[in-house]
């Protein structure tokens, strides 16, 4: 399974794990792949703490950091966090605040009562730039990845000048082509079935088109991969590696409240929906009363990014921290892809990595035994 991209990075297997959990980053990198820490929910101070921990535990292995600089968002002309917060606060209608609060109260979600009341400015260049600056101080962080658009030219230059690679996610062909034209080093091509922000075209259709459209740039296939047969399918379409998100959510190393794990364990592939209700852009998550409430004609429409994310920041942290309280799961933010229906047990990241490779080899062997008819 060694690809040119593996050689470029000096890794054993081209399996990339997107995760918000530092333990998963370390476990996957130590098992021969690359753990990539999703930084969107971290303030600069929190990110520093996470990266300190990773650096202390990852040994000689490499990792990546994923930031979110949307191509377009409300308030992108604001250059300081204070200006952006003031704009956001003024732009969120009271009707939206009341609706959100009522949904949480009606389902018995407790108010936030933990230490640390810091609201992060997710989904903005103001925060993402600070994250890139922090990541680039870390010698073992070899990749920067951006979700939701081509990173700005100055960030691309900054990452290249530091001797690292920079890539970005693409859920549409034209986004991948734009990444290539901007000088990115690789494209993570995510089909519609993937967890988190996802477009409309499925992986089966999008991956081969992307491989052709951005050649010779390496494409990492994302969206709908949780076993070795799916890895083989991606590699057979010309991908240089696979980028998985959902599978790690129910790994032994992932931090999750038991109630959230149960929701994931019980869900089938039909239980997810693409919804704008948490971030303002279409993202795939478990369907529940929250996602349905925001769809109704008599309720407010989700706001554009980053307003909706700022509005729901408290809902996200409360439904995550108090996942088992009251009817929290009915309004919880549980982002995951359609592969949720394939994830039926909790395994360590090491076991997942091993299984992906052995299933890949079995599937390859099975394909190779399909002899042509005489
Ligand atoms: C819980 C969750 C959160 C995600 N958040 C981000 C993110 O912040 N940045 C990003 O680039 N991708 C994010 N993604 C998308 C993943 O990077 C990845 O492309 C996707 O999970 C692949 O599809 P899969 O879920 O079928 O494995 C997220 C995915 C999940 C499941």
Q: Would you give an account of this structure?
A:
This protein is α/β, with parallel strands linked by helices. It has a single domain, classed as TIM Barrel, CATH 3.20.20.70. The chain has helices at residues 4-9, 22-30, 44-57, 81-91, 94-106, 125-135, 153-161, 173-182, 203-214, 228-236, 246-249, 258-266, 289-293, 307-321, 349-368, and strands spanning 15-19, 34-38, 63-68, 141-147, 165-170, 186-190, 196-197, 219-222, 241-244, 272-275, 283-286. Helix 7 links the parallel strand 4 and strand 5. It binds flavin mononucleotide (FMN). The site of flavin mononucleotide has 24 residues, from strand 3 and strand 9. Flavin mononucleotide is lined by residues 18, 38, 40, 66, 68, 147, 169, 190, 193-196, 222-225, 243-246, 335-337, 339.
Structure in a nutshell:
42% of the residues lie in helices and 14% in strands. The chain has 15 helices and eleven strands. It has 374 residues and is α/β, with parallel strands linked by helices.
Can you give keywords for this protein?
374 residues; alpha/beta; eight-stranded parallel beta barrel; three-stranded antiparallel β-sheet; 42% helix; globular; binds flavin mononucleotide
Strand and helix map with partners:
Blueprint: H1 4-9, E1 15-19, H2 22-30, E2 34-38, H3 44-57, E3 63-68, H4 81-91, H5 94-106, H6 125-135, E4 141-147, H7 153-161, E5 165-170, H8 173-182, E6 186-190, E7 196-197, H9 203-214, E8 219-222, H10 228-236, E9 241-244, H11 246-249, H12 258-266, E10 272-275, E11 283-286, H13 289-293, H14 307-321, H15 349-368
Helix pairs in contact: 2-3, 3-6, 8-9, 10-15
Bound molecules: flavin mononucleotide.
Residues 18, 38, 40, 66, 68, 147, 169, 190, 193-196, 222-225, 243-246, 335-337, 339 line the site of flavin mononucleotide.
